[in-house]
Amino acid sequence: MERGVRDRRAEEIEALQAYYGNDLRRSLRDVRSMSPTSTSPPPKSESEAFDIPLEGPWFLRIRQTNMEDDGSGDINFSLGTPTLEIRLPPCYPLGEARPEPILHNVMMNPQLKQQLLRELTEMYEAEIDVGILWGERCREELSFGELTGVNEDADEYNANSNQGTASLMKSDGDNSKGIRTFIPPTTRYSQTIRHFPVDVITNSKYQRMMVHTLPFHPPKSGPSEIMIAHVCTVTCIEHVQWALAELLFNDKKVSKATHNMFAYRFTSDGSHFSDNDDDGEKGSGSKLASLLDMCHVENVLVVVSRWFGGSLLGPARFKWIAGVAKDGLVQGGFLAENK
Q1: How do residues 156-212 score in pLDDT, each as one tens digit?
Q2: pTM attached to this predicted model
Q3: Strands of the 83-87 sheet, one edge to the other
Q4: At what angle do helices 131-141 and 3-20 cross, to 10 degrees?
Q5: Contact 275, 264 (CB under 8 A)
């Protein structure tokens, strides 16, 4: 296995374990052994179960985030735990060959199941880590009120069975009902997984007109290093949510940026609201917030997208981030050009 592939997989496994805990397993046997009705032998030790092989496959138990674990790993699925298996091609995640998703212990219409698997496969592009992306997509689609585990030895549900056919539908869990989740394409830059209320980001009354600066290439940076600012007027948190979702879900280039750091401030009903986010670029959010404060601008959201070019910029990167943001404020009419 090439060193670059090995390093990236190690980083992804670390992120998966941090996000899913003991729901990430090294084999389907380990998942089955955690069921109270299982006759499968347990792993020799807990460390064996969590020693995830770099070469794969990886096994991820799919369950609602509000399901509590009693420490034993047992979940209330009497016939098996829905599990996503991820089979990795040799070059993953650096090559074009796509990883293969397989769903175990899921009872659903076979055509809907194939449709979901096909969607997962098509999500992959080179340099994208699929573990959390696929896991959250499955969790969104599998309704635990309707989709239950099936016999451990039967991965496909017989549509003619007298048990009936379950359908894909949105989960009613607190973390998935009316929520759309953005998952960064890779875990290597410590970006934030973001959740947006669907009733806000699909409501036209919160729609914003955004200004986008021209791409800026910082001096002495890598050949592909680019920064772009996105600026719009906001007077409520719903405006902020709509604008961020618009960038992340509807601008393919922005969704793949290394960082999308932002800051906003607005006044509503006599109260002042402000916040910022680094999106993995430590310190950048507070720099943008300081810029808004020093420029005395109000009712504004500024987002700076950065595509890392391969060369570390050091502290100078904050100067360029603030400079691009200031250009956006000028272009959006929030700041005079000579101020």
Answers
A1: 323 333 322 222 223 333 344 588 999 888 877 888 899 999 999 999 999 999 999
A2: 0.61
A3: 24-25, 58-61, 83-87, 100-104
A4: 40
A5: yes
